[in-house]
Design brief:
Blueprint (H helix, E strand, L loop, with lengths): L6 E2 L2 E5 L2 E5 L9 E5 L5 E9 L3 E6 L12 E6 L3 E4 L7 E3 L15 E4 L10 E2 L4 E2 L4 H6 L2 E2 L6 E4 L4 H11 L9 E10 L1 H14 L5 E7 L4 H22 L2 E7 L1 H14 L13 H9 L3 E3 L5 E10 L7 H9 L2 E5 L1 H5 L6 E8 L2 H4 L9 H25 L6 H18 L8 H12 L12 H7 L6 H5 L3
Parallel strand pairs: 9-16, 14-19, 14-20, 15-16, 15-17, 17-19
Antiparallel strand pairs: 1-7, 2-3, 3-6, 4-5, 4-7, 5-6, 8-10, 11-18, 12-13, 18-19, 20-21
Helix pairs in contact: 2-3, 4-5, 10-11, 10-12, 11-12
GO molecular function, one term: proton-transporting ATP synthase activity, rotational mechanism
Function: Produces ATP from ADP in the presence of a proton gradient across the membrane. The V-type beta chain is a regulatory subunit.
Protein name: V-type ATP synthase beta chain
Length: 469
């Protein structure tokens, strides 16, 4: 709803991206305003604090050159809103929801608040449906379930952008391919990364079922705070108004949190851990908790937030708080990446707390959970033996120990290191059985006799070796 414009002319001072306006106590928190200076230039902004003395406005554009004497502020909307439409699928937007693909503006079916509405806990349905990403380590060991929020913990220089693009290209809910969509929001991208994502989505055809929000590193920090909310608002609309199963990929949440810290510093807030605002947990929860399934509605919102851990520190406030709110984590490993394993996902520190809800007989395959447990145990054993070999050499190992060492190599090379291949869950389990079959049956203590009789002896033929490329 567009409101009658009232102007506020008493602009007190500017601090970074913040504008302080006196005698504006009737402005509402979250309202969208327009700032106009004497040169006729206009900038957008959002009210982030209101008191009896003044209102604080986050300016969406550069504040340099803004003349306080001639500046005026006028109300545009009572709250930040996004015009949403089913026609957004296949389009690219900037962090504020403006088209950047050279096509006309979307004709909005409705305008909705980007802050969303809290999902009634009593209306939430239990996530129970498997989402296939086509990546064996995720699908078998840390399965993604429809309605889940499952973050990817990465590090600087690791290929999380390539992993994000691969998931966006390959993900599907088996049986619901026609009503599956991806909403992709990237924050703080370099120009090279913008080109990579744009070309990758267009080259692979993934753009046809995707909505892209791309916020660049040289865009204002304030815009970075709105980008994920724009994406989630679009996802909720497609899911709960049009019945889509929507996968939301948010990258990089570290850039988002850095923007949050920058704004907090400009507001002279008392900092918390590592200088981040004390309310960062609440702020992240307001994003992550917008994932879910609602009883009686066919659509769903599933989230994969991606964050690069500063100094690979999983105890850093950003991954630490994310881990509290979300339902597990997928860990991108630097050592695997250095060995050329792609995608370098380490299943040992990775976890999906909802995996048991969406796998097994009638959902994926009856042997799925047991195979996952056996792979985990055998790989952990193989890594322990690697440490032992570094001290004593292989001569001290038994023949069974040497088989576990070989298992760890094959597991990394053929199962984790699948490259750009798109594997169905059956394909992934076939590869798993091919590797497990190199161990004696007596060592498969996590798998039932029926599954061993049916699948043991599966061959690792050239088809799977070539699947890595």
């Amino acid at each position: 709803m567009t409101l009658l414009k009232k102007e506020y002319n008493d602009v007190a001072y500017i601090s970074g991206p913040l504008l302080f306006v006196n005698a504006a106590a009737d402005l509402a928190y979250g309202a969208i305003v327009e700032i106009r200076d004497g040169n006729g230039r206009t900038r957008g902004g959002q009210v982030i604090e209101v008191s009896e003395q003044n209102a604080v406005i986050q300016v969406f554009e550069e504040t340099r050159g803004l003349d306080l004497a001639t500046a005026s502020v006028s109300l545009v909307e009572d709250v930040a809103r996004l015009g949403v439409s089913k026609e957004m699928i296949g389009r690219r937007f900037d962090g504020l929801g403006r088209p950047i693909d050279g096509l006309p503006n979307v004709v909005a079916e409705k305008r909705v608040s980007i802050n969303g509405q809290a999902m009634n806990p009593a209306a939430r349905a239990k996530p129970e449906e498997f989402i296939q990403t086509g990546i064996s380590t995720i699908d078998v060991n840390t399965s993604l379930i429809r309605g889940q929020k499952l973050p990817i913990f990465s590090g600087s220089g690791l290929p999380h952008n390539e992993l994000a693009a691969q998931i966006a290209r390959q993900a599907k809910v088996p049986g619901h391919e026609g009503d599956f969509a991806v909403v992709f929001a990237a924050m703080g991208l370099t120009q090279r990364e913008v080109s990579f994502f744009t070309q990758e989505f267009e080259r692979t055809g993934a753009l046809a079922r995707s909505v892209l929000f791309l916020n660049k590193a040289d865009d204002p920090a304030v815009e970075r705070l709105l980008t994920p909310r724009m994406a989630l608002t679009t996802a909720e609309y497609l899911a709960f108004e049009h019945g889509y199963h929507v996968l939301v990929i948010l990258t990089d949440l570290t850039n988002y949190c850095e923007a949050l810290r920058e704004i907090g510093g400009a507001r002279e807030e008392i900092p918390g851990r590592r200088g981040f605002p004390g309310y960062m947990y609440t702020d992240l929860a307001s994003l992550y908790e917008r994932a879910g399934v609602i009883e009686g509605k066919p659509g769903s919102v599933t989230q994969i937030p991606i964050l690069s851990m500063p100094d690979d520190d999983i105890t850093h406030p950003i991954p630490d708080l994310t881990g509290y709110i979300t339902e597990g984590q997928i860990v991108v490993d630097r050592a695997l990446n250095a060995k050329g394993v792609n995608p370098p996902i380490n299943p040992l520190p990775s976890l999906s707390r909802l995996q048991g809800n969406g796998i097994g007989k009638g959902k994926t395959r009856a042997d799925h959970k047991n195979v996952s447990d056996q792979l985990f145990a055998a790989y952990a054993n193989g890594l322990e033996l690697r440490k032992l070999v570094a001290i004593t050499g292989e001569d001290a190992l038994t023949e069974t120990d040497k088989l576990y060492l070989r298992f760890a190599e094959d597991f990394e090379q053929y199962f984790i290191g699948q490259g750009n291949a798109d594997r169905s869950i059956d394909d992934s389990l076939t590869v798993a059985w091919g590797i497990l079959s190199k161990l004696p049956q007596s060592q498969l203590t996590r798998i039932g006799r029926d599954a061993i009789d049916k699948y043991y002896g599966t061959k690792m033929d050239e088809m799977w070796r070539g699947n890595r490329i």
